Amino acid sequence: MTANQFAAGETPQIDLESGLGFVAAVEAGIGRLFEARASDITLQTDDYVWAYLNRRWLPVTRRRLEHAQIEQLVARFCGAAGVATLQSGKPLDPEVEVMPEPGNPRRVVRARCNVHRCRVAGNAEGMAITLRTIPDLPPKLDLLNIEPEIREAILFSQGLGLIVGITGSGKSTLLAAVLRERQEGLRPEKIVTIEAPIEFVYTRLPVNKGWPQAGGAPARMPEVSQVQIGRHLAAWDMAVPNVLRLKADVCVMGEMRDFKSVEAGVLLADTGHATYATAHTRTPAECVQRLIAEFPESQQPAAAARLLSNLRIIVAQKIEPTVAGPGLAFRSWVILDAELKRRLGAAPYQQWAQMLTEHMDATGTSFALQALPALRDGVIDDKGFERLADFIPRERRDFVAKHLGEGWISPAARAQAEREQAPVEA
Q1: Is cis: bond before 241, omega within 30 of 0?
Q2: End position of a domain, from candidates 134, 157, 192
Q3: Which structural domain, as residue segments, surrounds residue 182?
Q4: 183 shares a domain with 305
Q5: Are the CB atoms for 183 and 205 separated by under 8 Å?
Q6: What is the tally of structural domains in the chain?
C-alpha cells in the first residue's frame, strides 16, 4: 500500500498481522503514515496507535498495543538500554529513522522521538512514545505566502530573529524555509545550526548556480553544518566558543527554552552573527518577557538591554483550520527598527510587552487584525477567530463591532443559522 492510495481520504492502517513481525510492521506503517502527511504519531501502553492527520487524531490500528510491545519499540528507537533508562526516571529524546518499505534504505523518513513513563489506560507503569516527522527538504519561502514586510526584514545580516508559536504551529518549518532562502541565494554564506535535536536537514537542496568563481564555473556555498547538543557537543555552554571559531555568517540556535540556550543565542547575536531561534510563546510581546525572565533577576536589566540591542524581528505563527477543512497559517509580527527600539529603551523593560502589543495593534500586525479578513470572508469561523486572537466571545463581538460594524454576522455563523432554520423534510 502506498501513500497515493490514501489521497482520497482513507487513513492508512498499521497492519499488525502483515507477517513482517511486530516491530517491522509498526515501523513500516509509521513510515507510510508520515508519507501520507501525518505530522505526529503516538504509541502507548494498552492503547491504539494514533496519528495526527489533517489536524485531527485518528486511530490507525485495529487493536491496542500491549506493554511488552511498547518495550520492544522503545528498544528499537532508543537502543537496548532504553527501557532501563526510562525506569530510572529519565525521558528519552532520540532522532529516529523508519523505512516505509522494509529493506529499502533509499526510502527513509526521519522523526523526532520522545519516550517517557506514565499512567495510561489504568496501567500505572505505562510508557508513551510520540514521533514527529522531520521533513528532509525545507519548503521554499515563497510557497509559505510570507507577508512582504516579514520577507524583507527576516533576511538580515546581523542581529537576532525569533520565530515563535505553540507546538505544531509550524515555526520550525518557517525557520527552515528562511535558511533555505539564504542557502540558495547568490551571496555565499556559511550556516551553522545548534539544535537539540536536529530537525530539518538540508542535504537535498539543489546546487546553487548563481555565484561565479574563477573561470565562471558554478559553485555552491558551504554545506549547512548541524550540531546536536548531547550528541556532537555535550552542552549549550560549549556551543558559543565552538561557533566563534567556525567563521559562520548565520547561526541557528534551535529552541530557546532555558537560561543556557537564551544566553547562548544572545551572545552569538552580540558577536555579529545573523542569529535565528524559536521559542514556545504565543505572541511577539509574550516572547520578549519570557526570554528576559529566563535570566536571574539581578541580571535582567542588562539582559533586556542586550536583547533589545540585537533583536531585528519577531514572528509568531498559528495554524487554524479553515471552514473548508485544511489548516491555514496566520502570523503576527513586530519589526524592531531604530524608532521602536528608542521608545522601548526609554521605558522600563517590564513595560515592553504592553508597548509591543500596542505597537502591533497600531501597525495592523496583531493576530486579531491579521485574521479579521479571513473571518470577514468566511474562511474561518467565529471560534477560529477567537483562538487566533486569544479572545473570549464578548471580546470577539466587541472587536468585530468596532472594525466591521454593529450587527455584523460572520458568513459561517449566518450559514449555520440558515441550516438551523431550514424546514425539515418529512
Answers
A1: no
A2: 134
A3: 141-202+219-365
A4: yes
A5: yes
A6: 2
Flag whether 401 is in a domain. Answer: no
3-state secondary structure of 363: helix
The tens-digit pLDDT sequence of the chain (426 residues) is: 343 344 445 666 898 887 789 999 999 999 999 988 899 999 999 999 999 988 889 999 999 999 999 999 999 999 999 999 999 999 998 888 888 888 877 788 888 899 999 999 999 999 999 999 887 788 899 999 999 999 999 999 999 999 999 988 989 899 999 999 998 877 888 999 988 777 787 776 664 444 455 444 455 678 888 888 878 888 877 878 888 888 889 999 888 989 988 998 899 899 889 999 999 999 999 999 999 999 999 999 999 999 999 999 999 999 999 998 788 999 999 999 999 999 999 999 999 999 999 999 999 999 999 999 999 999 999 999 999 999 999 999 999 999 999 989 999 888 888 877 767 665
Adjacent-strand bridge partners of 50: 42, 59
Note whether 198 and 326 are same-domain residues: yes
Sequence-distant (≥ 6) Cβ neighbours of residue 151 within 8 angstroms? 141
Task: Report the alpha-carbon distance of residue 284 to residue 334 in Å, rounded.
Answer: 7
Q: Is position 248 within any domain?
A: yes
CA–CA separation, 164 vs 312, rounded Å?
Answer: 14
Q: What is the CATH number of the domain that holds 72?
A: 3.30.450.90
pTM over 0.70: yes
CB 17 within 8 A of CB 91: no
Nearest alpha carbon to residue 134 among 34, 23, 218: 34
Residue among 412, 178, 346 at smallest CA distance from 274: 178
- Among 365, 383, 400, the domain boundary falls at 365
- Give the β-pairing of 211-212 and 109-120: unpaired
Q: What's 286's domain CATH number?
A: 3.40.50.300
Does one domain contain both 76 and 193?
A: no
Give yes or no: residues 184 and 274 share one domain: yes
> What is the C-alpha to C-alpha distance for residues 316 and 189, in angstroms, rounded to an integer?
26
Same structural domain for residues 129 and 172?
A: no
What is the sign, positive or negative, of the torsion defined by CA atoms of 348, 352, 354, 360? positive
Verify that 178 and 67 share a domain, yes or no: no
End-to-end alpha carbon distance in the chain: 44
- At 344, the amino acid letter reads L
